């Protein structure tokens, strides 16, 4: 009985670790999202004659203002979608985790009961 | 943060209060980190503003040392005192005039200052909630200690009364033996 309990407990800790990883990932995505929003804001403030360059690897390429805006907007879309996905995954694993916890508690109660029976005898 | 005000701290036992205290102090560390980071960025901007001041038209064709690596510099001439490339994030650079760049960095310092002030506010709120948790925790621990001491005293009294009863019972037994 104890080994089963340990197995379930291990599953619970696996869920907990997964949730932590997903949360740190989500924080990364949110920071990238904020940075891109910032860049878009800055690009919108520029006059149309301004020159914009993009760092692609070790090279600095000139891009038009509209191209740059489009690039950043696309990036924002992608990041938004990723954020939604990670939020959903966090919810799912949280639900699984809570379910496991309840199962473990019920399991613990069962383990406690048979100890009382021999005392009555 | 507002979730903590929705339940009463007095309803928690010392263990829960302790874990809450750890949670709050770890949050405080994070806020402190971001505050120091913002201050660093602010000083970076002031440094760039300072270096931009040297890009004046009178400094045209002045000799400069351009860095190739961290320890290798190349002698050259300052040929461009009109425009600079400013990094706006996510690998994008914008060519601006020196005045526009100065304005840009002044704007950025304002934004960073505002954010730093916000972080300071939340840090203060955090400190206050930590104080509240600490006072409730101390009170509860004190109460528990009092209870414990009271229980110990009760036990000691019980033991004393038991000893008295034993003392009264013993001499009767001795008399029986002699018979």
UniProtKB/TrEMBL annotation, chain A:
Family (UniProt): Belongs to the prefoldin subunit beta family.
Listed name of the protein: Prefoldin subunit 6
Signal peptide (residue range): none
InterPro entries assigned: PFD_beta-like, Prefoldin
Key words of the record: Chaperone, Coiled coil
Coiled-coil regions, chain positions: 65-110
Alphabetized PANTHER family for the sequence: PREFOLDIN SUBUNIT 6
From TrEMBL, chain B:
Domain of life: Eukaryota
Entry-linked InterPro entries: PFD_alpha_archaea, Prefoldin, Prefoldin_subunit_alpha
Matches recorded under Pfam families: Prefoldin (PF02996)
Annotated Gene3D superfamilies: 1.10.287.370
SUPFAM superfamilies: Prefoldin
Family note: Belongs to the prefoldin subunit alpha family.
Protein name per the record: Prefoldin subunit 5
Organism expressing this protein natively: Anaeramoeba flamelloides
């Amino acid at each position: 009985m104890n080994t089963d309990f340990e197995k379930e407990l291990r599953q619970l800790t696996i869920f907990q670790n997964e949730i932590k990883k997903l949360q740190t990932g989500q924080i990364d995505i949110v920071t990238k999202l904020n940075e891109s929003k910032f860049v878009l804001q800055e690009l919108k403030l520029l006059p149309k004659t301004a020159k914009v360059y993009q760092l692609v690897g070790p090279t600095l390429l000139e891009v038009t203002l509209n191209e740059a805006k489009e690039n950043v907007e696309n990036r924002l879309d992608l990041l938004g979608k990723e954020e939604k996905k990670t939020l959903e995954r966090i919810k799912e694993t949280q639900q699984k985790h809570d379910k496991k916890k309840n199962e473990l508690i019920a399991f613990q109660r069962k383990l406690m009961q048979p100890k009382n029976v021999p005392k009555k005898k | 943060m507002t979730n903590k005000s929705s339940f009463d701290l007095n309803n928690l036992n010392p263990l829960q209060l302790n874990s809450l205290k750890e949670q709050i102090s770890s949050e405080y560390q994070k806020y402190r980190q971001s505050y120091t980071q913002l201050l660093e960025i602010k000083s970076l901007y002031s440094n760039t503003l300072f270096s931009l001041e040297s890009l004046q038209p009178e400094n045209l064709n002045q000799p400069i040392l351009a860095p190739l690596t961290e320890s290798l510099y190349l002698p050259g001439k300052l040929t461009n005192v009109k425009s600079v490339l400013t990094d706006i994030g996510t690998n994008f650079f914008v060519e601006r005039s020196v005045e526009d760049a100065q304005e840009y960095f002044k704007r950025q310092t304002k934004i960073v200052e505002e954010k730093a002030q916000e972080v300071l506010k939340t840090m203060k709120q955090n400190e206050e909630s930590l104080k509240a948790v600490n006072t409730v925790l101390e009170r509860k621990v004190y109460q528990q200690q009092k209870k414990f001491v009271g229980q110990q005293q009760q036990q000691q009294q019980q033991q004393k009364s038991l000893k008295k009863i034993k003392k009264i019972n013993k001499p009767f037994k001795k008399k029986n033996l002699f018979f």
